[in-house]
């Protein structure tokens, strides 16, 4: 049950028919894992903390660099060279001290993801490397955890929502190769509001699902052209030969 302070803090959400008291209580009982606390993870973590998600696992093995500040709005100039995960916890606690934060400063791998995910209700992939994205995707498939994935480079962004039983496939169906793409923010650059827009939409989908609603993006890939302000929506299809989700989904349907 919400206390008086929580009723005031979340009053504008409680007015929403799709959230209400029941949805707010579900948010407060939820645990999310945010993978990466950079340009995407900054708005994701801020909005989820503000919304009252009960527990947030903050995963990032990097320290803050001067070049990050152009887009990673969670941090400040005086924070340079400090752990991003530790800094994120400080900033989010200042925003909402009523929820719980756990810092994960090690790189996420198959092994530690398998230890972490049983306590998690939803994962937000906000990372910047393919190895971690594939490890997170595989762990979500194994533990049947919904995954909200976002990325952005230059003036382009993409967003997708994958949920059990993963009938529409997984990240590995779409991107089977694990090599880093030639175009990334280090080589092609990225505009700050691009990661802000995609990260905000990741948070939106997460809040809707955690509050008991559905995501209109399930099984879809949305591509955003920031120059033309144009969205393209593609429907995802499972690759029956996918080494990550193909066999599991085939067995699940038997």
Automatic annotation (TrEMBL):
Record CDD domains: ThiF_MoeB_HesA_family
Pfam families xref list: ThiF
Domain THIF-type NAD/FAD binding fold: 10-244
Coiled-coil parts of chain: none
One GO MF term attached to the UniProt entry: ubiquitin-like modifier activating enzyme activity
One GO CC annotation: cytosol
PANTHER family with a match to the protein in the record: SULFUR CARRIER PROTEIN THIS ADENYLYLTRANSFERASE, UBIQUITIN-ACTIVATING ENZYME E1
Record family assignment: Belongs to the HesA/MoeB/ThiF family.
Protein name: HesA/MoeB/ThiF family protein
Naturally occurring in which organism (per UniProt): Limnobaculum parvum
């Amino acid at each position: 049950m919400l206390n008086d302070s929580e009723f005031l803090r979340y009053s504008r959400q409680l007015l929403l028919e799709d959230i209400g008291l029941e949805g707010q209580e579900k948010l407060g009982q939820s645990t999310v894992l945010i993978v990466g606390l950079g340009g995407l993870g900054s708005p994701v973590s801020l909005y989820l903390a503000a919304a009252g998600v009960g527990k947030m696992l903050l995963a990032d093995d990097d320290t803050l660099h001067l070049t990050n500040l152009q887009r990673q709005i969670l941090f400040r100039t005086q924070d340079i060279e400090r752990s991003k995960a530790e800094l994120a916890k400080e900033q989010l606690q200042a925003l909402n001290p009523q929820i719980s934060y756990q810092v994960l400063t090690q790189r996420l791998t198959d092994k530690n993801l398998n230890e972490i995910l049983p306590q998690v209700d939803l994962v937000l992939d906000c990372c910047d490397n393919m190895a971690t994205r594939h490890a997170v995707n595989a762990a979500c498939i194994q533990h049947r955890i919904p995954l909200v994935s976002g990325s952005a480079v230059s003036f382009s962004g993409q967003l997708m929502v994958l949920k059990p039983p993963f009938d529409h496939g997984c990240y590995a169906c779409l991107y089977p190769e694990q090599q880093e793409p030639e175009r990334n923010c280090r080589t092609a650059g990225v505009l700050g509001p691009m990661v802000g827009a995609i990260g905000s939409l990741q948070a939106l989908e997460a809040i809707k699902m955690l509050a008991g609603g559905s995501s209109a993006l399930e099984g879809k890939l949305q591509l955003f052209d920031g120059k033309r302000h144009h969205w393209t929506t593609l429907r995802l299809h499972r690759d029956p030969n996918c080494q990550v989700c193909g066999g599991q989904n085939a067995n699940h349907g038997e």
